[in-house]
Every structure is written in structure tokens, then in C-alpha cells.
Amino acid sequence: MAYRFALAGNPNSGKTTLFNNLTGSNAHVGNWPGVTVERKEGKCKKTKEDIHIIDLPGIYSLSPYTPEEVIARDYLSQEAPDLIINIVDATNIERNLYLTTQLIELGIPMVIALNMMDEVNKHGDVINTEGLEKELGVPVIPITAVKGQGIKELLERAVAFAKNPKPHGKTALEKTQLGDAIEGIREILKKSGYGNTLYYAIKLLEKDSIIKDKLKLDQGFSKAIDEIAAAEEGKAEEETETIIADLRYRYISEIVSKHIKKGRKQEELSF
Ligand code: GDP
Ligand code: MG
Ligand code: K
């Protein structure tokens, strides 16, 4: 059995460092079709299973605003890899989790590689990885990619998850004022035969026209979805997209305040 794993994360989170660690010199480098964004893929040399790894471009979001975002979201939603390794810079966790909340909604099995743990430990910060794992609904494995630490456990949990994929993950928007609108759109998408509907439902609520065009929905379904999105848009002064971003940040800061304790070393240094 061969598996395809995709590395996804913010720029500078350590994706290439992890990719090189996993694949050694055994990588193929090219460009994504039509753009000069580097495409790197290779075989993992550290597992007995046959695992193909692709290093996606660094992104902050799954929106359509940069070529990198479009490449990453098209690859993830259309090529459906067996698993996403979401690499998160643990020294900048609040910003990195913004992408994580979106990746979870794709419905693809995912593990979080919590990277730069050497820096976290140096600062004296404490991250409750088990708490984070429970909260997000996906495995969280601390690693230090530059030193090759934690890679073995990361691969063990990733392979186990790819072999036995289970529904996972929670959406940051579930228990918010948008929950009903998202469920309404999901119901319509289900009737249209779409599987990973959570990601699409949220994109359609954001009136993402690229996704809308790609889905090629029947006119009746399309109109029903537009009505839900328009009704939601009418309820508040801000754009739904802005509200969604705010809700994600609120969800993340709650999680971070619960599970991360900043050490004293940084403060002491600044006096
Ligand atoms: P990418 O943009 O996600 O591909 O990130 P890179 O792999 O290029 O890494 C960005 C920077 O972070 C480089 O200078 C790496 O050497 C450094 N880096 C990567 N992993 C770690 C780590 O575990 N600890 C520390 N301290 N630095 C790291
Ligand atoms: Mg890179
Ligand atoms: K509005």
C-alpha cells in the first residue's frame, strides 16, 4: 500500500527542513503548472511503508488571494492526499493555528507537527500538547525538525492514522452564530453528492466565487445556497468573511490561553 502525505503550513514553519529530513536527497524539484512556485516531492526514507511526500507552498490561509494559496487549496481539495502533516511553528502558535482551523475543515486525516520545540523549551514556555490534541481533535506531536527530534513518533502516528482514518477534527465555527447557516449549506451540498462538505460549505458562506464555479451545482441548489449566504450577510454590518476570520481568532485565543503557559525567561531578558 502506498500513501500520499502533504506537508502544509505557514512560510518559515520548517516545512522544507522536515521535508529534507524525511526524504533525504531523494527529492524531485519542479514548478507547479503555470506558476513559478516550487514543487518538491519525494519518497519518505524513514518508513517501511511506501510514502510519497509533497511539500506544499507556505500559506497563511486557504483563501484564493495568492498563487500559493490557490495551489495548496486546489491540491488538497482535488488531489485528496491520504494525510496532511500540518507543520506549526510552536513559537508563533496563535498565528499558525489560523491555517490549522481551516485545514481541519477539509476532512482529510491530519496530524500536527508542532515544530521549533527547541526554541519553546529555551524560552521556558510550556505547551500542553495533549490538551491541544483534545481541543482540536487531531494528533499533536512536538518535534524539532532541525535536530531530527520527534520525527519517529510523528511518522508512527501519521502512518497509523493514514492506515485507519477516522472522522476527526472540530470546526472553530461549530458553536457560533454561523453554525445553522453552515449546516444548511452542508445539507444542500450532501444532496448534490459532495463529500467533504464542511470546507465547501464555509467557502460558499464566504461567497468564494472560485469554489462556487468549481462545484458546478444545479441552479436550484445554487440559488438555495446563495439565499442562505445572503441572509447571513444581511444580519451584520461586517462581511461574513470578516466575521468568520474573527471567530477563528477568538476560538484560537481561547485554546492558546488554556493550553500554553509563557515562561518567565523572555520577560526577565527584557528588563
Ligand atoms: P519553510 O519556509 O516552512 O520551508 O521553513 P524552513 O524549513 O525553510 O525553515 C525556516 C527556518 O527555520 C530555517 O532557518 C530553519 O533552519 C529553521 N528551523 C526549522 N526547523 C527548526 C527547528 O525545529 N528549530 C529551530 N530553532 N529552527 C528551525
Ligand atoms: Mg520551504
Ligand atoms: K454583512
Task: Provide a quick synopsis of the model.
The chain has 271 residues and is of the alpha/beta class. It is built from twelve helices and nine strands. Helix content is 49%, strand content 17%.
Walk across the major sheet and give the strand order.
2-3-4-1-5-6-8
Elements, N to C (H/E): EHEEEHEHEHEHEHHHHHHEH
Measured between the Cα atoms of the first and last residue, the distance is: 56 Å
Oligomer: single chain
Bound molecules: guanosine-5'-diphosphate, magnesium ion, potassium ion
The profile of the biggest β sheet is: 7 strands, mixed
Strands, count: 9
Mean pLDDT rating: 93
Low-confidence stretches: none
> What is the SS-derived class?
alpha/beta
Beta fraction: 15-25%
What percent of the residues sit in helical stretches (DSSP H or I)?
40-55%
| Shape label | globular
Number of helices: 12
Rg calculated over all Cα atoms:
19 Å
Binding site for GTP: 9-16, 34-38, 55-58, 115-118
Domain FeoB-type G: 2-164
Function: Probable transporter of a GTP-driven Fe(2+) uptake system.
Subcellular location: Cell inner membrane; Cell membrane
